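Severity: low
Component: inverse-folding endpoint
Summary: output formatting inconsistent between runs
Steps to reproduce: submit the following structure tokens with default settings.
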């Protein structure tokens, strides 16, 4: 696919990105900026697009990832932690607490047991995803549809969350 053909295809799909960008940003100007940044990234990374795949989905993925990255940057900049109120505890013996690795060992043992108790059809895709495989790679290796992979990983997470609920911070 030539650069001109790619640019034409991208321009034809660009208008469909605006509602999704508006949904993400909740602001007209930010949505326009997000679409523009998405288009720029798509055009500069045209070599990464595989002809014959879904261009619209590829652009939505770029847009979503751009939004998430921008959101994380803003969040990191705006979250200043004021630790000065905790400095008084620094040199006081009465509030001195040490942690050993025993607690972490118990937690990891419980997590490993919970994973081992998962049904094999849920454990395998979950562990593959955990070690870094993408959904598509898992689907290809296990020779199952990608929707099934996502569903099994979701079920595994749900079961683990239920079994390990004693470790929830808000409980």
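Observed output (run 2 of 3):
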């Amino acid at each position: 696919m030539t650069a001109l053909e790619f640019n034409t295809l991208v321009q034809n799909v660009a208008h469909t990105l605006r509602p999704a960008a508006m949904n993400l940003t909740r602001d007209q100007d930010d949505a326009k900026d997000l679409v523009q940044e998405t288009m720029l990234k798509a055009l500069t990374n045209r070599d990464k697009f595989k002809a014959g795949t879904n261009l619209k989905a590829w652009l939505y993925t770029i847009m979503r990832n751009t939004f998430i990255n921008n959101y994380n940057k803003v969040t990191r900049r705006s979250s200043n932690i004021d630790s000065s109120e905790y400095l008084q505890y620094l040199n006081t013996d009465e509030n001195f607490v040490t942690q050993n690795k025993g607690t972490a060992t118990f937690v990891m043992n419980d997590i490993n047991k919970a994973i081992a108790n998962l049904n094999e059809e849920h454990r395998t895709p979950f562990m593959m995803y955990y070690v870094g495989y993408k959904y598509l790679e898992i689907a290809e290796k296990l020779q199952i549809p990608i929707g099934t992979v996502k569903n099994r990983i979701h079920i595994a997470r749900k079961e683990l969350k239920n079994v390990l609920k004693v470790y929830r911070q808000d409980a």
